[in-house]
Please model this.
Amino acid sequence: MKYLKGSLLTMLLVIMGCIFWETRDVKAAEPDFFEEYSYGVSDDHEEYYFSLEYKCSLTIYMEGRQEYEYSYDGGEMSVILDKEDGIFAFDKTIDLPGSFKKTITLEAGEYDLYVESEGPYYIALSGEYYPELSEDEITLEVGKTKKLKVNRINSKVKWSSSKKSVATVNNKGVVRAKKAGEATIMAECDGKKLKCIVTVEKKPASYRVISRKMRTFAKKNKNYKFKTIDVGNKCCLYACSAKALSSESKIYSEGYVMYSSLYPYIELVKKKNDEPEIRLKYFGETVKISAYGFTSLYCITLKAFTSNRRMNFMMKNIYNKYYYNYSNYYYEGRMKGYSIISTSSKLESSKLKKFKTMLKQSSLSMRITSFDDTYMQISISTAIRRNWDKLLKEYELLLKEF
Model:
């Protein structure tokens, strides 16, 4: 058993019956080993090992001679080349005396070479590694570059791009990402075409850029308000508020009045991993003033409905309080909550589309409901609906940053 490893260059054949290995691509086995088996007769098979670092075009030359010059039956010589995973790459049997030569393509890996001969033999391996690109697939952000190289080649390389609007490449193999999409970079050399798939992605969203756009929108458009909640971490863009004052509710008692307000807003936050996220929310508040007793309110749902469409959103209660106002001699209950319609990390496209459709209809009512079925219904005017619709369009524009 002999171990052969390394890189393939040129085949050196020396004295008859010896085995020689090409010095660059597959390193030579020890000379005394091959001398031992060069002229002997192998009753069992001999096994050798070698490794290829890269994909290779390998030429196998095998030659065997009769053990006795005047033998009637010259016998046979068999050579099997087997990859370590059990896949046969070469299997040939010849009559002695005789020779055989074949070029095959081998992938990088470890190989076993089995030889069985009824007479003296020698085997020579030689080959060249295939040229290959340094990368088969790359992902770049818009504006970034990456240099590709063709390994194991000395000739000139011709570079080209299948879609220059997405990614370009110069004559040195430097790829530049232009816009989001996918392109194929091709390298032509020695009659071979090598390909690299380039995926171009948008630059990651920036809290600073998005917050600046929200602030600019509020400055250019009346009836919108921008507010920084936590510098560099949280800010909001608010639309107009729809309000209602009524003495009608599902609580069938007298002597109370209710007030509600509702408005959508865009919230921008920086998460723990420093990535920004925008959220489209609705804020709702309901106040109940009663002359007879305590009233406890707690936000549960936000309902929107037109003549032919209905939508329900769960509300997260952020404030609820009830107390007796000694100055004015009445009981007061108050609840505040919000409902998330959509976020950049969990885009509810169907809900967003449906609600935009409802805003464009001739009438729209919304209702903030408490856990005890107390609710306040707000009729949304045409002017308010237009204001809200414009905020939703701005939200969709901001989503394109992600």
Notes: Residues 132-201 form a domain with the Immunoglobulin-like fold (CATH 2.60.40.1080). DSSP finds four helices and 29 strands in the chain.
